[in-house]
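Contributing: when you submit paired examples, paste them exactly as shown. First protein:
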Amino acid sequence: MATVVLVGTLDTKGVEYEYVKKCIQEAGCAVILVDAGILGEPPIRPDISAGDVIKLLNKDMADIRFSEEGSDTRSVAIETMSEGLKVCLKKLINEGKCDAVFGMGGSGGTNLISSAMRSLPLGVPKLLLSTMMSGDVKPYIHGKDITMMYSVTDIAGLNRFSRLILANAAHAIAGMALNYKKALDHSAGVKKPLIAMTMFGVTTPGVLHIRDLLEDKGFETIVFHATGAGGMAMESMIREKLIDGVIDYTTTEICDYELGGVFSAGEDRLTAAGEMGIPQVVVPGALECLNFNGIDHLPNEFKTPERKLIIHNSTVCAVKASKNELIRLGEVFTQKVNAAKGLTEIALPLDGLDKYEEGPWKDQETDQALFDSIMRHSNVPVNKIKGTINTPSFAKAVADIFLRLWNQEHNK
C-alpha cells in the first residue's frame, strides 16, 4: 500500500490534519502523521511526535519552546524543527515508508514545511497547501519540484468550503502516492549521459538546435528556463550529481542578480558545474537582459530615454544593460567561469546575444565592450564565433566544442 507522510503543526491545525488524514485513507493510502508543532501538545495523536523529531537532532522540545510571538526564538524554533523534519523524512524514505509528502500552513508553517520538502530527492511527490500560494513562491520552492496549492481561506477550522479544498488536496497527494512507482517506471529507460542547458524565449532556436545535435550523438538533454528558479534547479541538480555536463547557453540570471532584476538565481549561479568538475561550455546568452515583472513594476531609475526597453509580454519587460554595466557583468561572468575545476570553455556569439539583439537592441559597441571584458579577464579558452546565438552555425559550433570537451574528459 502506498504511504503518504503528513507533516504539519498539529498544535494549531490538528483538526484539519485529522480530516485530511481520513480523506487520504479513504482514497486507499496508508498515512504516517508527523507533528512539527513548536507551541504545545496537539489535540490528535501523531505517529511521530514533535519531540521524536527534535530528538533526531539530539535536542529536546524544551530547547525550542518560546513564549513571545514575534521573538527571535520563534524563528530559531521553526528552523530547528525544519532541520529535524529533514532528518525524519530522509529516514522514512530510506526505510521505504514514504511515497509522497503533504503539508499545509500559513506563513510560518509554509516556511517550516517547504524547507524540509526541499531536502527531498527530485521526483518524490511533494504537495504544500498554503495561504502564501497567491504571492511570490520562490522563497518556498527555490528550484525543487514542490507542488503548491492555494488554500483560499486561512487553514483555521472546517466549514463546507474548506472541507472541499482540503479534500481536493488530499485526493491529489493520494493520487501522486498511488502512482509514484508507476511514474518511476515511466521515467526509466536506457541510461544516457544527461546534459543540462539553459534557455530563454529569446535563445530558444539555438538551444533546440543543440538539443537535436546532442540527442543524435546519444546524449539526453534537460533544459532549464533561466527565470531564477530554473537556474537554481540546475545548480542544485548538478551538485546532487544528477547532471553529467552543461551547456550554459543563457546566463541572464547573473544580470538580474547583479543589477536587481526579478529573475535572479542567487549568488551561486554559474558555480556548480565548475565545483563538480564536469565539462561545460558557457555562453553569455541574454546577459544584457535585465528583467522586471511588467512595465508597471519597472523601477524609476530605468525609465529614462537612454534605456532600451522591450515589453516581452504583460508580465515581463526587459531593459538592456548599459555599456558600463556589461563591462562589469563580463568581469563577474569570467570570475565564476575561471573558478571551474573541470574542462571549461566560453563561446561568444559575435553578432548578437539573443533575439532582442537581432532587432531593436542591435548595438555592436556595447556587445564588444562585454566581449572585451570577458576576453580580458578569462583564464579559460574563449571561442569567438560569427553569427547570433540563434544562428544554426553558432549552435553547432557550441555543440562541437562541448563534444570535444566531453571526449577529452572521457578518453583520458
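Second protein:
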Amino acid sequence: QAATAPPAIKLPPASRLPKALQGVAFSISRRWVVRQMARRHGDVFMLNVPVYGHIVVVANPKLAKQVFTSSPDVLGNIQPNLSRLLGSGSVFALDGDDHRRRRRLLAPPFHGKSIKNYETIIEEETLREISGWPEGTPFATLPSTMRITLNAILRAVFGAEGAELDELRRILPPWVTLGSRLAALPKPARTYGRYSPWGRLAEWRRRYDVVIDKLIEDELADPDFESRNDVLALMLRSTYEDGSAMSRKDIGDELLTLLAAGHETTAATLGWAFERLSRHRDVLAGLVAEADTEDNELRQATILEVQRTKTVIDLAGRHVYAPVFELGEWAIPHGSSIVVSIWRMHDNAEAFPDPERLDRKS
C-alpha cells in the first residue's frame, strides 16, 4: 500500500512589514506586536524576526494544547534554544530520546515528596528576609523575592551554606540579568573579550564551573553522602536505565538551568503577587481569613490568577520535525518554528471577561 502523501503546505497570514522592522518591534514590545497581529489576523499568524526567522504564532487554547501534547518526534525544542546560554547538557537543549531519558533521570529530585523536604528552607528564608521590611512605607518587593528564591534554591540544591554559595550569590544575579537580555540576540562566533557582553557571560560561567566542581567534590567526600537529600546529591546518585550517570558538565548545566531560570521567574511571580494583592484588598482580606482555616481554595485561585494576569513566561516555542505539521486548518512545513503566546491566551477577553481583573473565582 502506497504511503499517504503529506498535506499541502498552508501557512497562516503574515505581517507584510520588513523583517528588520518586525524584529525591532518584537524586541521592544513583543506583547504589543502579538496583540496587534491577533486583532488583525486572528489567533494564528506569522512573523519574521531575527534569530528565529519565520515563526508561526499561536494564541488559540485548543491549538496550543495540540502543540504541547504532540510527540517530541513531531515537535521538538525550538531552534536555536537556551543551550546557547545554559549549555548543551541542559534539559532545554535536548530532544527526542535524550530528552525523555533526562526527564526520567531528573524525576526523583523533583518529586512532590522531595520538594516537601524543602518547605522548611523556604519558610526560613522568607522569615529572615521579611524581618527587615519597613512598616507603613511602600517599598519594592522584587529585590526581596529575588533574595528569598535564590537563597532557598541554593540551600535546597546544595544543602549547605559557605564560601562557594556566597560566590554563586555574586555570580548568578548579574548573569541572569545579562543572559535574559542576550537570549533574543544571535550568539557571535567569539566573545570579543571579557568586557564584551558575551565575554562577561563566559567569565561568569568559568567561575560558576569552578564553584560547582568544588561543591561536587565536597558532596562526594561527605561520609553521609548516601543519606543526603539535597538536589545535587540526588543528581549524583541518579543513574540512567543502563546504569550510567550524568557527566559533571551535564550536572553543571542542569544546575545552572535550575538556579538561573528557576529563581528569577519565581521571584518575579511573587513580586507581581504583592502588586496584585495591594490593588485587590478584598482578595487580600479573604486570604488572611483563609489562613486561619484548613481551606486553601482561595490561595490556589490567587496563585493561578497572578500567573494569568501577570504572565512571566509569555512564550513557548517548538521546532517542526515532521514533514508537515497540521495545526487546525494550517499545514506547517518541516523546519518551521511555532511559538505559543501564553500571555495572549491569558489576555483574551472572550475566555476571561475583564482579563486585567484578579478574579477570585478562577
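If you have annotations for the second protein, write them as plain sentences, like these:
The first helix runs from residue 19 to 41.
The chain has a mean pLDDT of 88.
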